[in-house]
Amino acid sequence: MWFKNLQIYRIINWNISPADLEAVLSKHTLNSCLRIEMQSRGWVSPKAEGGPLVYSLGQQMLLALGVEKKLLPVSVINQFAKLRAVEIEEQQGYKPGRKQMKEIKEFVTDELLPRAFALRRKTCAWIDPVNGWFVIDASNAAKADELVELLHKSIEGCSLALVKTKKSPASAMTEWLAGDDIPASLTIDRDCELCGTNDEKATVRYVRHALDSAEIIRHVKEGKKATRLAMTWRDKISFTLNESLQLKRIVPLDFIKDQIDTSEEGDAFDTDFAIMTGELPHLLVDLMDALGGESDPD
Length: 298
Known about the structure:
The protein is of the alpha+beta class. It is 35% helix and 28% strand.
C-alpha cells in the first residue's frame, strides 16, 4: 500500500488519539449517492471494506476519504435535452429559448441521475504525529483539498499547513541541473521538464535521457526553469519532484523490496505501512534540508 504521491502538510494542531479519531470520523462515513445526488463523500476504511476507519501502527495513523460519483456525461444530458426540446417545440409552436433550454437540461439531469452508474475512489492520508507530518496520497491538489476540507469538518480544532521551503523547488532543481552540487542524499535520474519564463512558456521534456549534457545547461542559460525532476533518495526510493513541492511516481527500490520480502510479518499491508512510515520521514527531512529548510507556516 505504498503511497504513489505525496501532498505534504505540517501539523499545526493535532491532539486526538486513534480511538477518538475513529469516533469522530464515524459521524461522517461515506454513504451511497441519493437518487438526485451527483456525488457523495465520507470516510471509509483504509485497509478493508467494513474495517476500522483509522488504521494505526504504533503512533502512525492512516485514514481514507471515499468519494462516490455518478457517471452522467454532458453529451448524454445534451442528447436527451435536444429530444425534449423538440417535443416542447411541437407543443408550443416555437423553439425553446436559452433560459428554457437551461431548465430542460436541469430537468433531464434530475431525471437521469437515478439511473446513472456510480464509481467509487479512495484517497488515503498518513498522519505522523511524532514528526509532525500529514501526507496525502493524491495526484493533484484538488483531491487533497477535498480530504482536508472533510477533515476540518470532522475534527474541531484540527489545523494543517502546506509545507513551504526557503528555496523554491524550481530554483533548486534548476541549479542542480546547471551543475551545482546536489545533496549527498539525492541523485538525479533521467527525466525532467524545463519551462521558459517568458510569455510563450516554451517547454522541453526529457524522458530516459542523460541530464548532465551541454544541451540541458544551454536551456538553463537561456532562462528555462526546471519544473519537474526525477530523483532517487539514498538508493532506496525514486520519485519525481515538481515545482509545487509535490512528490509523484514514488517507487520503493530493491533495498526496500528486499526488506519487504524478508519480513516475517504475515500481513503485507502492515509490512508496507511499517516500512513506508519508517523511511518517508527521513526522506522528507533530507528533502527539506536540500531546499534550504522549511519556511514558517502562514
